Amino acid sequence: SSSAPIEDYSFRKDCQQRLQRDGVVEIHNFLQPEAIKKIKQESALRLDDAYFCVSNHNVYLTPPQENPLHPVRNREVVSSKGLIADDQIPESSPLKQLYHNTIFQSFVCHVIGEENLYPYADPLSAVNVHFAKEGQELGWHFDNSSFAVTLLIDDPIDGGVFEFLKNVRDSSNEFDTVEKLLNGEIRPDRLNMKPGTLVLFRGRNSIHRVTPIIGDKTRMVAVLAYNSEPGIKLSESARETFYGRLN
After folding, report:
1. Torsion of CA 176, 177, 178, 182, to 10 degrees
2. Nearest CA to 34 among 66, 76, 2, 67?
3. Is the CB of residue 231 less than 8 Å from the CB of residue 142?
4. Pairing state of beta strands 213-214 and 51-57?
5. How much is the mean pLDDT over the chain?
6. pLDDT band at 235 (very low <50, low <70, confident <90, very high)
7. Of 2, 174, 188, 224, which residue is 20 to 30 A from 88 by alpha carbon distance?
8. Strands (E), the chain
9. What percent of the chain has pLDDT over 70?
10. CB-side neighbour CA atoms (13 Å) of 219
11. Confidence at 1, pLDDT banded by 50, 70, 90
């Protein structure tokens, strides 16, 4: 169960306003420590089953363009991580219980301004756990989806910091901003996440990354993926890329 008052209207309103203002909401100690401990133990048991891959991509997660509007559109960054899919996480897991909990879904709807939320219709995409070992990172990118819901399960010894810059996509100086960020000329915002921190994030317009992991402790984060329409499946090409399989 959550230690946050997610049924409380004023709490929901506050989270909604923070998301609109900052592009992100952090709720520390969202789950009780014993629930996080159980999720961490479950996830660690599946680490050897995780699908690890390294990919070079641009920040828009699109194929290279022949005549890009700006060279930064084709500039490559690196992402390297592992993950376990929905079908590798037990139905009894607190993660699945949280994901399917109607009060939690209602809270997320209220904060992000959606009428309804629906689970992914394919067997892999709804609840995932991402792993990042020493030296691994998530390169700068914009999300394809309008919002993301994540829960930090375990943090590394050092590194693994979530950095972002809000409201970059579709801004008047978008490409120059992205280029300066990739060149290290702009200092991004950072989140101070601890195990048990829930994050609601608008990643379509906010460019973000996770810095390289330092030390031999694996960073684990759960991603709870919803849709605003029923019956949506992640595309087969995306499933092949993310999971190395379709089912």
Report:
1. 100
2. 2
3. no
4. unpaired
5. 94
6. confident
7. 2
8. 24-27, 51-57, 77-84, 118-119, 127-132, 138-141, 148-154, 158-159, 162-165, 189-190, 198-201, 207-210, 213-214, 219-224, 226-227
9. 100
10. 30
11. low
Instruction: State the Cα–Cα distance between residues 3 and 237, nearest whole angstrom.
Output: 38
How many other CB atoms are there within 10 angstroms of residue 102's CB atom? 8
What are the pLDDT digits (tens) for 79-123?
A: 999 999 999 999 999 999 999 999 999 999 999 999 999 999 999
Check whether 241 has a pLDDT greater than 90.
Answer: no
Question: pLDDT per residue over 24-37, tens digit each?
Answer: 999 999 999 999 99
Q: Which residues pair with 51 in a beta bridge?
A: 83
Q: What is the DSSP string of 79-112?
A: EEEEEE-GGGS-TTSHHHHHHH-HHHHHHHHHHH
The answer for residues whose C-beta is within 8 angstroms of residue 119's C-beta and 6 or more apart is: 99, 100, 126, 226, 227
Confidence of residue 239 (pLDDT cuts 50, 70, 90): confident
Asked if residues 152 and 197 have their Cβ atoms less than 8 Å apart, the reply is yes
How far apart CA 136 and CA 242 sit, in angstroms, is 16
CA distance 82 to 55: 11
Contact by Cβ (8 Å): 204, 169: yes
Mean pLDDT of 1-8: 88
The three-point CA angle 124-128-133 to 5° equals 125
In the block, tokens 């067997």 appear at 123
User: What SS3 state is found at 148?
Assistant: strand
Task: Give the angle subtended at the CA of 210 by the CAs of 227 and 106, to the nearest 5°.
Answer: 30
